[in-house]
Amino acid sequence: MRGKPAAKLGGFILIMLVAAYLAVFGLTLGMFEFYPWQGTVQRGMELAGGKQAVYSAVYDDVSTQDALSQTRDALRARLASLGMDDATVTTRGEVLCLEIPASSAQSDAKLLELITKQGVLEITNEAGDVLLTGADVKAAQGTYDRSSALGTPVLYLVFSSQGTKNYKAALQDNVGGKLEIKIDGHVLETVNISATTVTNAENFLVINNSDFAIDDVIIHAINLRSGPLPLAIEEDIVYRVTPTQGHAALRNVFIAVCVGLALVIVLLTALYRLPGLITAFTTGFFGLLLLFMIATWKGEMMSMASVAGIITATCFLLGLQVLLLERFRKECHDGRSMITAEDAAYKKMIPVIVDSGILLVAAGIILNWLVVGPVKNFALAMAQGAIVALFSVFIVNKYLLKWTLEMFSGKNDKLLVAAQKEKEPKKTGSQKIKWHFIVTAALLVAGLVVGIFVGPNYGMDFAGGTTVVANIGEKYEIADLENALCKAGVKCAPVQHSFDGGHMAIIRVRDDSAVAGIETTLAAEYGKAEIQSVSQTSGLVPRTWATPVIIAISAVCVAAFIYMAFRFGLAAGFVGALSVVFNGAMLLGLLSLLRIQINKPFIAASFAVIMLTLFFTVAVFDRLRENRRVYARQGFNSAQMADAAIANCKPMAIALICMLAVVLPLYFFCVPGDLAPPMILAMVLGLYTPVFLGLPLWAKLMKNRVSDSKKAEIKKAK
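and the corresponding structure tokens:
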């Protein structure tokens, strides 16, 4: 009997090890080739580098001082319409700098050529008179001509009401002649006008050119929808560059997370014996399946925001496993056999797993749908990770635990469980709860005051900074230059290397004062180094990023309220939604108070507070719902129920410790410093608020209702 589960467990471990080897190193077997995950997962500018193009603006007599910034914003809108959220456009002094990820299918010279066209539409007659412009067009779309058997690409223009009148008048006035349709002076199509053409004229125009590719018409349509660029721009130079977060950012994140997970496995094995060790294999399976999903998901591009989403999903998985192991240990302590304890633990854990999984996936979908920029990558990776985590816990972990119990149950139970009696809840009252409110309110007010009057400590991604371009004059290692800068006091300054520009180095810093340190370091370490340019650089994130974020958070709060009100009651729904809002405000306040620098990955990582708040809130109220009848029979009022629930939050505290163990190593492996701080704060707030603030608030809201039911029970007993 023990041989079969041993064979199953051994087979699973062997398959997972082979899959892990293929994912890391790849393999070629004859005509079959397995690529390592780094070759299949698309990565953005932060992790893979890409192309950097520098453009000079062509000013005319009517150009304003803001025209360069307006041109930058228009290019950002065009790239966002293409779904290239990881591409960036900044002003660098008097030039524009555009960066496109290397793994983008469209990161080629053709894309740069088309996306930077001014986008001026003109429809002229044979005399060259302009009859219609882009102002007459209300919609443009690049698509396939479905009336053609070959499905050729066409550019479809829809005129406004006034544009339709102008178009028909142009046809009427030029019967027997020709109209030329031009974009930036280039003729796309020539239309021969006849009486039939005038009669059949509609409010749209289909432009068909044999030289069109589908990408051409899509980009032309985007350029027309966004309107002409305020300034014409000319290409100065295009070259390939290394990742913006440093050459080894992804490798260092991977090492840090592996170290953190190793610490977690050691802790869980010490607490829960072999069932704790099983979490290592479940987590490994989770990681492999999630990487496979990301690699095969169309259009997904991994960035530091995606890494934050993956880490958050990993913490969600660990939290579920800890709660499950605690439940299993309790069932064993209550006298059940190992096998029945495992079944009972899963049955009682189903509400927590399902409820938290649904909320996290829904929150990820809402954020991915409504927001723009880095948060989009975080939300997608988080939603994918939550789905994979549910599968890993329900299927993989269940069978691994079952096979392990079948192998060792009755043989050496000390290897399977270290039973520990759970303390019975006591009527302790709520005397200390007010101090939690006082301390938290004081921190929140202090943080908001600093945030309002001093402002958050925005990093270069938001506030801009200084870009130093230097010719090192010899072959150099990026790691050596970064370490030299760090020793000279120029911290958090990742270096980009230009592949096509000789031995060029691009160094970005937040403060102008760091330029002197860069010059000193280059002179001391590289005798041939020369500073090519020092220029002020605008932020990477557009000013409009906050509005969709606020809308998305509001939508998540509404969804959380509806779902939790349905599952746990109106009071719990209100507490859940309020916890999300409160933790968001608290996180911003603490960031302002601690003066932690805020950059793009930081913003995405900060959204972990939403996910972890939802998870811990569901776990807290599920435990309260389960024990509520027991508490009522013991004569507990609402405040005492809340106190008892707080006293029984030990499993969640262990889950929090495991989560922190995963994130803390990020500090010690040169991972970009804006990733770990918000995630650590998100984890602490995610547990603290539902337990020490949410439960007392629930007790206040439920006071009368619980008191009435208690009176009825006492009356019935008499």
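(Above: one complete record from the training split.) Residues 3-39+247-415 form a domain with the Multidrug efflux transporter AcrB transmembrane fold fold (CATH 1.20.1640.10).
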